[in-house]
Amino acid sequence: MSSEATTTSGITTVYQVTGMTCGHCEGAVSEEISAIAGVSSVKAVAATGQVTVVSAAPLDDEAVRAAVDEAGYELTGRA
């Protein structure tokens, strides 16, 4: 099963992030990923560690990894 899906609003990719424990964590991760060119929406859920990203085109996983790292968390891969 692919963790990437195409929708009418773009490509949805779900990533797994470790270290998020609260709403502040979700906001920090969302803010950094939102800064990546082409990203239209980010939803981070601390309880599951999943971050759902909608973008115009497939994202470079290393760019997402760098954004998550900048926020102070660790991207473990695609969910």
Automatic annotation (TrEMBL):
It comes from the Bacteria. InterPro entries: Cu-bd, HMA_dom, HMA_dom_sf. Pfam families: HMA (PF00403). CDD domains: HMA. Residues 11-76 form the HMA domain. This is Heavy-metal-associated domain-containing protein.
